[in-house]
User: Fold this.
Amino acid sequence: MYSPRSWKLAYIRSARERAAGYLVRFEVGDAQALPYPDATFDRVLSMLVLNFLAEPVRALREMIRVTRPNGIVAAAVWDYGHGMGMLRTFWDEAVALIPDAASRDERRMPLSRRGELAELWRAQRLGDVQEQPLAIESVFRSFDDYWQPFRARLAPDRIGHDDPPPRVRRGARTTWSGCGR
Assistant:
């Protein structure tokens, strides 16, 4: 089983390998205290991070600080309410089967609903703000392939259990099978 630090480093290593030869950096660090001088980059991108931070405004201000004038500041987060089917299946089953899971359902996660990132950008007086969906198809060979990130704790599990309870797994498997997969 991976520790959070080891899987972060594995993601970074993989990204670096895939982007070899491009002028791009992938690093693990504190998004709220970037270790770069002002106006260092033409483009700054946060992928799947801002919605997990206690102070996303602070991180966005850091992104703005290290971006050159007329540069691009961009971010992406999962749409936990209507997109990200992998997690939606999990959470729908968890909420149906575990009474206290509803309060932790990721559909309530800040910045994860349409319009929220754009609103945050505008609040920081960024211009030419655009928000668009980015669809990524996830293909799983089997239910076990789908369930692996939950078992390895690579997918968020905020229902308060070390491992998703067996009844959530059974419910997700039933939903999975009913979708014609």
Remarks:
- The beta strands are 41-47, 67-76.
- The chain has six helices and two strands.
